[in-house]
Amino acid sequence: MRAPEPRRVRTRAGELAVVEAGDPRAPAVLLLHGSSASSATWGAYVPVLAPSFRVLAPDLLGGGPGGAPPDLEAQAGQAEELLERLAAVDPAAVGHGSGGAVAAVLAARGRVRTLVLVGASGVDDRVAGELGRREVPTLLVWGEEDRVVPVAEAERLQDRIPTAALAVLPGCGHLVTEDAAPTVATLLVEFLRSRHLGARHSHAP
């Protein structure tokens, strides 16, 4: 099954192309791509997540053309406004590469409750410390052979975030979302169902 065609959502920064799937009333999962990438990063993941979640995969603006690093604060603002405009319910966030830093900022601000970082870059100590203070349920997924963001970065984040679990996938590089898509998709679905949906159910009257 293919991901649906994107819709256009107007924000203060400009129009965002957003792939959307699933029940609009379901808890949302925001999928954030890395620099020089797009929502196509998550093409194989949208249909897998859609039966349980409202999936939102935007093409963030300022994605670093010509190798320039993306503006983290600007992209976090775009993502935050998108959640508001689409009235996303109880969102979780998944981010790859620099998209992981955007997702982590949202979690540190309390805008998302559950977090998955996949080969994430640019998550500084202040943000990681806030995630730890907030006890944000976090899954770290890394390729063992990632030379862009080595596994040592995942270990640093795990040290800073006591609620973080780490899955290191052998034989995979930075594009672990492509190298091991079925495995990563299974990890995401199981973690989000357990730690995000499960937490909601455990607080039900």
Describe the biggest sheet? 8 strands, mixed
In N-to-C order, the SSE pattern is EEEHEHEHEHEHEHH
Structural class: alpha/beta
Low-pLDDT residue intervals, each spanning 5 or more residues = 201-205
The total strand number stands at 8
Question: Which of globular, elongated, flat, extended, rod-shaped describes the shape?
Answer: globular
Distance between the termini: 36 Å
Sheet with the most strands: spatial strand order: 1-2-4-3-5-6-7-8
Count of helical segments?
Answer: 7
Specify the oligomeric state.
Answer: single chain
Mean pLDDT across residues = 92
Task: Tell me the radius of gyration.
Answer: 15 Å
Beta-strand content: 15-25%
Helix content: 25-40%
Could you outline the blueprint of secondary structure elements for this entry?
Blueprint: E1 7-11, E2 14-21, E3 27-32, H1 46-49, E4 54-58, H2 72-85, E5 89-96, H3 98-108, E6 115-118, H4 125-134, E7 138-143, H5 151-160, E8 164-169, H6 176-179, H7 181-202
Parallel strand pairs: 3-4, 3-5, 5-6, 6-7, 7-8
Antiparallel strand pairs: 1-2, 2-4
Helix pairs in contact: 2-3, 3-4
Describe what is shown at a glance:
The chain is an alpha/beta fold. The chain has helices at residues 46-49, 72-85, 98-108, 125-134, 151-160, 176-179, 181-202, and strands at 7-11, 14-21, 27-32, 54-58, 89-96, 115-118, 138-143, 164-169.
Tell me about this structure:
Helix 2 crosses helix 3 and helix 3 (98-108) crosses helix 4 (125-134). The relative contact order is 0.14. An 8-stranded mixed beta sheet has the order 1-2-4-3-5-6-7-8, sandwiched between helices. By secondary structure, it is of the alpha/beta class. Residues 201-205 have low confidence and may be disordered. The chain contains 7 helices and 8 strands.
